[in-house]
Amino acid sequence: MSPNWPLVEREKEFRIIRAALRGETAACGVVLTGDSGVGKTTLARHVTAALDGGVRWVAGTESARSIPLGVFAHLVGPATTSDPLTYLAAARESLLADGNIVIGVDDAHLLDELSATLLHQLAIDRAVHIVATVRSGETVPDAVTSLWKDNHLTRITLSPFTKHQSVELIETVLGGQLEGLSADLMWEASGGNALFLRHLVEGARQADTLRQVNGVWQLRGRAAITSELASLLESRIEQLDDSVLTVLKYLALCEPLDIDILADLAGEEAVEEAEIAGLVRILRDGRRLNVQYNHPLFGEVIRHRLGLASSRRLRGSLVKALQSRGTDTAAERIRLADLALESDVAIDADLMSAAARDALGFANAPLGERFARAALAEGNGGLGAAEPLARSLMWQGNATEADRVLAGFRPDDLSDIELIYWGGIRFATVFWALGDAGRADDILSMLREKVTDPNLALVVKGFAAACAIFENCVDDAIALSDEVLDSPNPSPWAVEWAVFGGSLARALTGRGHEVADLASRARVAETVTDGLLRFPAGLGEILALTLTGQLDEAASRANRYVEFSNIGQYLGWAMAGILVSVVDLARGDSAAVARQMEQTLATLDSGSGEAESWNYPAMFYLVQALSAAGRTDDAERALRTADERFGPHIAVFGPMLTIARSWQQASAGTVSLALETARAAATEAGRTRQFAIEAEALHTAARFGDSTVAERLRELSGFLDGPLAGLYARHAEALAAGDAVELDLCAGALEALGFRLSAADAAAQASVLHEAAGSRAATVASAAVANRLSADCGGLRTPALVEAAQPLPLTSREREIANLVAAGLSNKEIAQRLTVSVRTVEGHIYRACTKLDVTDRSEIAALLRRSDAGDA
C-alpha cells in the first residue's frame, strides 16, 4: 500500500482558506481547529502549496515552548539583544524583509508567549497572511486566542470525515470496493479521524484481517492498528495512575461493563478518574449504568500491551465477578463463556454448549462455532454440542464438515426431541447447503416415520413446507404450512419453518395480503429459534409487500432485519442486504442493488464451492441490477454463475432467474430475444402457480415493448392482491392501444407507488408515441419525466429509455440490429444471437442504411455512438 494517502476533498474549507490567504476577505488568514489527526495540517499545507507567493512554515513544540521566539528562530536569526521588545522588533523586520508572504503555524497552541505576541502583531497590522492550526481541548496562549476572537483570522473547525468520505478514501487507497459492514466497523473505530483511519487500514493489511474476496475488501476480526499509532496513543496512557490503567485493562477485555462490577474490581475512585480524564464514558441501559471507552482505539492499545498471563488473570477475575451476579440472559452467558475460554478458570462444557446456542440465536455463527468446539474439547461429545457446531458450520458454508459432525449419530439411538434437532439441521445442511434435494427428501421421510410425538411431528411438517416451496410445489407448501399453523399449540420451531414455506408460497402466488399474519407469528417464534434462519425466512414477507405495491412498508420491514444483524455479524448483514435489495430493485435503485449484491455474495462466499441456497436470490438480483445499469459484460458473467448454481433445491427461483436473463439480453441489445425470454418466464411462472411472478414477467415484456400481454395481465389483476397487477394491466393496455396520454397517467401512478424505473419506462414509451403523433410539447414533457426518473435511479438504461433518447426512424428489429452493429458484432454473430439467417440481417441493415441516409454498417455504428454520447 502506498504510504501517501490521497487528500479527501474539503472543497468549502479549501476555498475559504485560499480566499483569506489571497487577501480576498476582511481577515488576514485562518486558524484551523479540530482534534488531533483530523487533517488540519494536511489541508493547510495543501492550500499553501497551491499559492503563488512564498510560504514560511513553523511548528510549535513542547521543547521550543520555553525559548523566546523559539519557533521563529530559524527564520529571524540569532538574538542580538536580551530585551524582548527589541528582539521582537528585529524578528518582525526580518520576517517582512521578503515582502508579502504567508506564515504557516502548525500547533499554534504550543507557541511560546513571545512567538504568540509576534504573530498577533503581524495579524493586527495585516503585514502578512497567516494560516495556523490549533488542537481542540488544549490550553492556548491569549495572543493566539485573540486572533480569531478579534476577527483577525477566520476560525474553521474541521469535523471528522463523514462515513461517505471515509469509504471514498479507503476505496481509493485499496483500489477496490469496501464491504459496507467493514466500512461501518472502520468508521466507528476511527471516529472519522483521518490519521486513525489510515493506521487502521494499514494495521489491518499488516495483520491480514483486511483482505479482498471476489473484488470486495472485507475486514474480519478486531480492528488492528499499526505500531506507530499505538505509540501515539500510548503517550497519553503512560501518564495514567496504575489504578486508572487497571480500569482500562478490564474494559479492554470486557466492554461495556456494569459500573458496579468495574468499581468492585478496580475501585470507585479509579473509575471516576478515568471518566474525568475523558477516557471512558458512562451510559444508561435501563436501570443499569455501563462503562465503555470514549474511543475504541484506546482499547486496542491496552490489549496490545497486555501479556498472556496478565490477560488470563484479569479475565478470571471478570468471570468470577460476573458469575456472582448470575447469568440469566443469553447475552450474559455469551459474555461469560467468551471470557472463560481464555481465562485461568476451569471451562464449563455445559456453559459453552448453552452459549453456542445463544450465539446462534443472535445470528453469530463464528462465535457459536467457537463455543461448540470448546464444549466438545471439554468432553461434551453429545448432540448438545454437536448440533450447534454443525449449525454454525452450515451457515458459514462449511456444509461438508457439518454433515460429517452429524453423521456420527444413529437415528435409532435418538429420542424424538433429539431427532428433531439432529434431523432438522441435517436436512437443512443437505438440502440448502449441499443442494442434494433427493437425499434431503429421504431425511424428511425418515423423520416422518420415526418422530411419533404429535407436537414434534409438526416441526417435521414445517421442514416439509419450506422444502416444498423451494422445490417449487407452491400448493403443497401452503397446505403443509396451514396444517402446522392451524394446530392448537405448535412449537416456535414448527411455526418459523411453516411461516418460511407458507409466506414465500403465498407471496409468489399472489396472496400477499395473507402474509402479514404469518409474519407476526414468526416474529414471536424467532426469538427462541435460530437467529440466521429469520433472514431467508423473511424473504416471503418482503416479497409479499413488494409484489403488492407496499414499498414503504417493505423497506421498513427490511430495515428491521438490518437492525437485528448488528455490527460485526457479517452473515446476518449480508443476508439482510438481500431483503433490502428486493425493495431497492423495485424502486429502480439498480446501482445500489448491484453494489449490495456484489458485497453480499463476496461476504457469503465460503470458498467451498458448496451450494448455499440462501444467497441465491442475490445472484439473479445482481444480474438484473447490472443489466439495468448498463454493465452488460458484468451481467453476463453473473448470469453464467447463476446458471451454474441453479438446481432442483432452488427450483422456486427459476422464473425469477429467467426474468433476470431477459434483462441481460435486453442490456446486450437483443430486445426481441429478451421479449421471448420474458414471455417464457411468464409461462413458467404461471405453470407453477407463481402468479405474482407471472405478472412481473409479463410487465417486463410490456416494458420491453410487447403489446400482446395486456389480456393476461388484466386476468391476473382480477385475483392478485394489491393494486400493482391492475396498474401493470393498464400499462400494457395503453401500450397496445398506442394511447400515449394513458401511458403518461400510468407513469404517474407507478411513480406514486414508488416504482420509479417502471414509471420511467412508461413515460419513455409515451414520449415515443407522442413523437410519432407529431405532438412536440407532449413529447418533451413525457421525455422530461422519463429523464428525471431515470436520473433519480442513477441514470439507468432500459430499452424504452434508449429508444426515447434515440428517436431514429427504425423499426424495433432494425434498431436492435443497428445496436448490435454498433456493439461491433459481425452479421454472422448477429444472426446467431437472434436466431435468424445472415440474409435477414443483411436486409435489415440495408433498410436501416436507407432510412438513416448512410452508406454502410460502419456509418450506422458511428451514428448510434454519436447518439449515445449525446444522450450521456
What does this structure look like?
With 872 residues, this protein is mainly α. It contains 46 helices and 11 strands. It folds into 7 domains: 11-157, 3-Layer(aba) Sandwich (Rossmann fold), CATH 3.40.50; 168-221, no CATH class; 229-352, Arc Repressor Mutant, subunit A, CATH 1.10.10.10; 453-548; 549-629, no CATH class; 738-807, no CATH class; 812-871, Winged helix-like DNA-binding domain superfamily/Winged helix DNA-binding domain (Arc Repressor Mutant, subunit A, Orthogonal Bundle), CATH 1.10.10. Helix 5 (113-124) links the parallel strand 3 and strand 4 (129-135). The model has no long low-confidence stretch (mean pLDDT 87).
Short summary:
With 872 residues, this protein is mostly helical.
Number of DSSP-assigned strands: 11
Please summarize the sheet with the most strands: 5 strands, parallel
Radius of gyration, in angstroms, nearest whole number: 33 Å
Kindly state the percentage of residues in helix. 55-70%
Tell me the CATH superfamily of the largest domain. Answer: P-loop containing nucleotide triphosphate hydrolases
